[in-house]
Amino acid sequence: MRIIICLLLVTSLSSATVAGQDVMPRTDGLLSVETNSPDAIVLVGSEAIGIASESPFLLPAGPKQITLVEATTSSWAPRRVTGTVIVTANQTTTLRLNLPVRYRIDSMPPGAEISLEFEGRREIIGITPLVTDRPDVMDGILVARSRGYMDTEVEAGDSIVNHHMLMMQPLEAGVELDAVTTWIPPRQPRRWIDYAAAGVALAAAGTAIYYKFEADSVDDRYRSPESPERGDPLLKSEAERLDLYSLAALGAMQVGITVLAVRFVLR
């Protein structure tokens, strides 16, 4: 009789072990994360558990705060989005989280007004250079306007990151600027001064943008929690040096623009 009882106990334990291999624990559930950025980092609370493409994740059942963070060290402001979900035991729960769509818009020369135009509607986005994050892609045409230059247009774009550099062309002599300014005087002697001043302004603007981007990149390496060089004082000094170069280039650009403005006024 004792032998029979022992055999029954052994059989019951074996069955429980096999069942445990096939069925997840009763207090856990699976979380599947769907997103427009599969390489984004998934956090539960403040703890990273992997990247979105590795889901589903095995988590304790119950309410969770899920944060999706852009997986990049090249951005000075990584995008993120947070949502809440209730993980159900022994089931797969799906959460949809999309990172904001980023639009980075630059113009040459800078300072152009950017608007979004679609089906007769017009929305002012800002002044270049600008970065804007949207919950979804922007439908329509981006239009850059600046006094003394022809309007420049480009499709807004439907990628998760959209970067546009708009090269604006000066208006030719005699072209109307607006209802008040109806004409531009004919060419005057020493036009080479105008060309030189415009060239200096454009070159300085491009230089300023370049050094600003470089400074932002170095600053990211200095501040990013994932950077092995975080907190390095040499990086901080390098970022400040590049920012100084950018400011100097902006000063040169202002000089060129001032020369142009003075010459237009004196004509």
List keywords for this structure.
single chain; 267 residues; alpha+beta; Immunoglobulin-like; 3 domains; four-stranded antiparallel sheet; 3 helices; 33% helix; 31% strand; elongated; disordered N terminus
Secondary structure layout plus pairing:
Blueprint: H1 2-22, E1 28-34, E2 41-44, E3 47-51, E4 57-60, E5 62-69, E6 80-87, E7 92-96, E8 101-108, E9 113-118, E10 121-127, E11 130-134, E12 141-145, E13 152-155, E14 161-167, H2 191-223, H3 233-266
Parallel strand pairs: 1-7, 8-14
Antiparallel strand pairs: 1-4, 2-3, 2-5, 5-6, 8-11, 9-10, 9-12, 12-13
Helix pairs in contact: 2-3
Short description:
The protein has about 270 residues and is an alpha+beta fold. It contains three helices and 14 strands.
Describe the structure.
The protein is of the alpha+beta class and 267 residues long. It has 3 domains: 71 residues, Immunoglobulin-like (Sandwich); 79 residues, Immunoglobulin-like (Sandwich), CATH 2.60.40; 83 residues. Helix content is 33%, strand content 31%. The protein is built from 3 helices and 14 strands. The chain has a 4-stranded antiparallel sheet, with no helix packed on it. Strands 10-9-12-13 form a 4-stranded antiparallel sheet, with no helix packed on it. A 3-stranded mixed sheet has the order 4-1-7, with no helix packed on it. Strand 12 and strand 13 form a beta hairpin. The longest helix has 34 residues. It is elongated, with a radius of gyration of 30 Å.
